[in-house]
Write a structure and sequence with these properties.
Radius of gyration: 24 Å
CATH architecture of the largest domain: 3-Layer(aba) Sandwich
Shape: globular
Bound molecules: pyridoxal-5'-phosphate
Order of helices and strands: HHHHHEHHEHEHEHEEEHHEEHEEH
Strand content: 5-15%
Number of helices: 14
Structural class: alpha/beta
Distance between the termini: 59 Å
CATH superfamily of the largest domain: Type I PLP-dependent aspartate aminotransferase-like (Major domain)
Number of domains: 3
CATH class of the largest domain: Alpha Beta
Length: about 475
């Protein structure tokens, strides 16, 4: 009998190859310090991957070899302790194994009566507990905070205009909705305004105060002005950990304003919100427990492998009514596989969904919140250490107060913007450390976000030494600076 199945014909040989693949990844993580953080991709390597659509089969071993030689060495490097660019989590060996288990199970978490959904509900329960939300609050895993913010905005829109908006569209209500976030809020909020059909102009970007937080006085004024113009203020975003500097908006005052003005209060806590796991940081997030919704990522500070965003909504019923859609092929029963309603697909745009919950469940279960909290607090200690060292170096200048785990600084010299852009590239190409850049008050800053649980003081020292050495080199040959411009 011939088989058309995609399973191996020789399971023992497959098992041997599978164990080699697992060993390779364990070696990769165990020996990651010996590698460069990142390295430029040679053209020959890019070329190696180019191939016509494969028609005949080829061996798993060959594909794995290509992975080991052409793919693994040229990833972004966020698992490496020297990676400090943007805000990327480092992942963990436990998370990696959970991904493998989830891949083997191949569960679809759109719905139906299955334990994997109970796992997601358990994580939701832990998330409620973490942020002091009631049992009636709802939540699901999504790709990331970009999607979580969009879901929150859609629920708030429906709550404000009524469920008819789903059928009639936003124009039918004849009311022009406006939303508020700080100038340092993430660009995905404005993208979400676009996706909702409200338009990016309907997002008011409120200036920052001296601590890089949303200026609440100016917020009150902006709301008043919009009301006077006949517009309908409906949505207020507080950021708990801005991407630029890690600043935490005054969530308590924002919650007060939202209550007085009857606005939906959303917290974008993409990377910062899990700071509540650290007892030393938790008080700084006061007010988050009063939010109508919280978006955050397990894949940043939580170190869960990509991707694992989460949206938590206080009014679970409003959440469901924003997304639930009848369809004959999705009808529910009280028994059998079609039981267990409501399903995750009733709370977001996705029908088919992977088992993201498992890697978050494993991470919380195996490491525990105490250890995760200590790891998070440690990244903030490292950021303070880096800031102190920057302040003690005459060649360096700190460009923003260090609120959490993000340090913005620059190397002094002529044409500082181009110099520091080139310096960030030179650092990345050195393989020693990989910070990124941002613009603060019109000035280019080198930005080190300490997110990775593997980073230690030695890595901070390496970043400092490489910065000073490369900075000296670049200022010495300042006419070559712009060759690195991109
Ligand atoms: C990273 C980040 C986002 C976007 O989250 P993704 O998971 O990348 O979609 C939004 N807001 C803030 C504050 C962030 O740090």
């Amino acid at each position: 009998m011939t088989t058309k199945s995609l399973d191996p014909t020789d399971w023992d040989a497959f098992r041997g190859q599978a164990h080699r693949m697992l060993d390779d990844m364990i070696d990769y993580l165990a020996q990651i310090r010996e590698r460069p953080v990142w390295q430029p991709i040679p053209d020959t390597v890019r070329e190696q991957l180019r191939a016509p659509l494969p028609v005949p089969p080829s061996s798993l071993e060959d594909a794995h070899n290509t992975f080991m030689h052409a793919i693994l060495p040229y990833s972004v490097g966020n698992a490496h302790p020297g990676f400090m660019g943007w805000v990327h989590g480092g992942g963990t060996p436990v998370g990696m194994l959970a991904e493998m288990l989830a891949g083997g199970l191949n569960a679809n978490l759109g719905g139906r009566d299955q334990m994997p959904i109970e796992v997601e509900r358990q994580v939701l329960q832990w998330v409620r507990e973490l942020f002091g939300f009631p049992d009636s609050a709802s939540g699901i895993f999504v790709t990331g905070t970009s999607m979580a913010n969009l879901i929150s905005l859609l629920v708030a829109r429906t709550a404000t205009l009524g469920e008819d908006v789903r059928q009639n569209g936003i124009d039918a209500a004849g009311r022009k909705l406006v939303a508020y976030a700080s100038e340092a809020a993430h660009s995905c909020i404005s993208k979400a305004m676009d996706f909702c059909g409200l338009g990016t102009d309907a997002l008011r970007r409120i200036p920052l105060d001296a601590q890089q937080r949303l200026d609440t006085q100016r917020l009150r004024r902006a709301i008043g002005e919009d009301r006077a113009r006949g517009l309908v203020p409906f949505y207020l975003v507080g950021t708990a950990g801005t991407v630029d500097t890690g600043a935490i908006d005054d969530l308590e005052t924002l919650a007060d304003i939202a209550r007085q003005e009857k606005l939906w209060f959303h917290v974008d806590g993409a990377f910062g919100a899990l700071g509540v796991l650290a007892p030393s940081l938790a008080p700084r997030f006061k007010g988050i427990e009063r939010a109508d919704s919280i978006a955050f990522d397990f894949h940043k500070w939580g170190q869960v492998p990509y991707d694992a965003g989460f949206i938590l909504i206080r009014d679970g019923e409003q959440h469901r009514r924003t997304f639930t859609t009848p369809a004959a092929y999705l009808s529910r029963e009280s028994q059998g596989l079609a039981a267990g309603s409501p399903w995750p697909c009733d709370f977001g745009p996705d029908l088919s969904r992977g088992f993201r919950a498992l890697k978050a469940w494993f991470t919380l279960k195996v490491y525990g919140t105490r250890q995760l909290g200590e790891m998070i607090a440690n990244t903030c200690d490292l950021a303070r250490y880096l800031a102190e060292r920057v302040e003690n170096e005459p060649k360096l200048e700190l460009l923003a107060p260090v609120s959490l785990n993000v340090v913005c600084f620059r190397y002094r010299g002529e044409d500082m913007d181009n110099l520091n852009r080139a310096l960030a590239v030179a650092l990345q190409e050195s393989g020693v450390a990989a910070p990124s850049t941002t613009t603060l008050n019109g000035r280019i800053a080198i930005r080190a976000a300490i997110v990775n649980h593997r980073t230690n003081t030695g890595d901070i020292d390496n970043l400092l030494e490489a910065t000073l050495a490369l900075g000296a080199k670049l200022t010495q040959f300042s006419d070559t600076e712009t060759t690195h411009d991109c």
